[in-house]
Amino acid sequence: MNKELLAKLVLLFVVTQAIGLFVAGTLVKENVRATFITDNPDDVENSIGLIAYILFFTAVLLVAIKFFKRRIGLLFRIIELLAVFGTSVIVFGAFFPDMAFHFALLVLALKLVLPESVPLRNATSVIATAGAGSLVGVSLGVLPVIVFIALLSVYDLIAVFGTRHMVVMAKAMTKQNVSFTFALPTKEHNFELGTGDMVIPLAFASSVLAANAKVVAFPLAYALPALLLLASLAGLLWTLDFISKRVGLALPALPPQTVLMLAVFMLGKAVGL
């Protein structure tokens, strides 16, 4: 893999996941979580509900991309601003509880003033990933998260190799410079990485952290979540190394990430983490 790409990816991954785990730890301490379908975080119905939400949202976007091409940029921008603002409140709330709303408004203002800035897009993608991944993770039990990422991995394979609608969506999004992907430019090529490839591993790690925090003292509670994120990074690096040698090839990173994370999770539980 290109050394420049490797360095950028590792740095981006470490920063994003470190922020996300810190936010997750804060949410756990403050007993903050979201309700998706039922109030029981260990109910697998929540996993099915999340998949249903994703499918519905995807269908709406595909219809918009096909029939409202001239307005698709505005739609993406509105969704982006709402997502960035909401996740900014979550992330900044963990660091600056009294100023979270003000910082979120500042980020929103920067996005409006500098809509074409790639560094700003990457920064807001970090915020969006850290906020969304941590909240989803602490809101679901470990089993529902495992079911969720397993189903999502299957969906990714179908969406990339079967229907190929994920490729269509990715191309439409990258043209708009919105905070749903990370830009990883090198001298040879401009790689784009979807935020989902970082959100989902963070959700798994955050869920395990929330479960461990009830029975294991700090900092041991973070051991298995950190190992899960390292496993997901290995899967991500393998995917990018594979596609970096085959420019133009689309390959979902989540399936190999999921396989490695589940293997590490089972091994970690076997040794008492």
| Poorly predicted runs | none
Helix content: over 70%
Strand order of the largest sheet: 1-2
Strand content range:
under 5%
| Rg computed from alpha carbons, rounded to a whole number of angstroms | 18 Å
How would you sum up the global shape?
globular
Secondary structure tally, helices: 10
What class do helices, strands and sheet pairing give? mainly alpha
* Mean pLDDT level: 90
State the distance separating the first and last CA atoms.
Answer: 33 Å
Short summary of the structure?
By secondary structure, the chain is mainly α. The protein has ten helices and two strands; from the N terminus they run αααααααββααα.
Provide structural commentary.
Helix 1 (3-29) packs antiparallel against helix 9, helix 2 runs parallel beside helix 6 and helix 6 (142-162) runs antiparallel to helix 8. The protein has one domain (3-270). The two termini are 33 Å apart. It contains ten helices and two strands, in the order αααααααββααα. It has 273 residues and is mainly alpha-helical. It has helices at residues 3-29, 45-67, 72-95, 100-113, 118-139, 142-162, 165-174, 196-213, 223-244, 254-270; strands at 181-185, 190-194. The protein has a two-stranded antiparallel ribbon with strand order 1-2.
